[in-house]
Amino acid sequence: MKYIRLKHTELDVSNLIMGNMRLAQLSLREAETLIRTAMDEGINFFDHADIYGQGRCEERFAEAIQMNQGIREKMILQSKCGIRSKENYYDFSKEHIVGSVDGILQRLKTDYLDILLLHRPDPLVEPTKVAEAFDALHRSGKVRYFGVSNHNPAQIELLQKFTPHKIVANQIQFSLAHTPAIDSGIALNMGIDQSINRDSSILDYCRLHDISMQAWSPFQHGSFEGPFLGNTEKFPELNKTIRSIAETYSVTDTAIATAWITRHPANIHVVLGTTNPQRIKDACKGSDLSLTREEWYRLYKAAGNIVP
């Protein structure tokens, strides 16, 4: 397992993150097996959100591992807030952020979060109120560091202008079959669909500002359209290429899909949303598997992208 010191923090984290969006679907025993498997494989970074299972995923996590100080000290806990899922709108008000963290801590049975992410951009954001919330949470010891999810550069700049707390992470959708974050840079000024800059060069921006990137849905394509691994009808060439390279390294296709992300010099973290312990083991083989430059581009082209 590869570990990375997050910039502007004192956190040494695994480059693979266990995501817990579906944990409530598992029994306590199944959830414990999944978490213990991740830890045994070297994962120390765990991602949550207050809306996952309407809070039940955080509760199941704490119950499954019988959260206590000894276990807590072995983990980097991250959670997200800012979405009112029942009412279907976003809320970055100070009251909602602070209240959400109190609920998260209660459900996770811990006194603090290592990282709090603002889940999706709120068009009605008042950055001074977000800054006040960050200050209150940091002073009280409830949150050590802050970040965002699904934010573009201007949205990050707006928040950062009003708070002294460094934005240390941004979690976006990214996979071998979902690559807008790099497509336009490769096909600059070509007048084709791939040349369209859909995210204001968020990956380059985060590298320039020492903001850690986290990739959610690393094995999915489109907007929750399903996995590309094994989907030989829609991605025949990609799956064939993945299989070929996997055989070269004697690993699974999952490991290669993981390694394609971790190969990027931005040190992108891979958020594993699987509930399958074997899939976690397979992905962990890609944590520090360094694909060659030729292999990386071969996979990128096999996904249907142009390299001019």
UniProtKB/TrEMBL annotation:
Record key words, sorted: NADP, Oxidoreductase
Domain NADP-dependent oxidoreductase, first and last residues per copy: 16-299
Gene Ontology, cellular component aspect: cytosol
GO molecular function, one term: oxidoreductase activity
Stored InterPro entries: AKR, AKR_Detox_Biosynth, NAD(P)_OxRdtase_dom_sf, NADP_OxRdtase_dom
Keyword set includes NADP: yes
Protein family (similarity comment): Belongs to the aldo/keto reductase family. Aldo/keto reductase 2 subfamily.
Protein name: Aldo/keto reductase family oxidoreductase
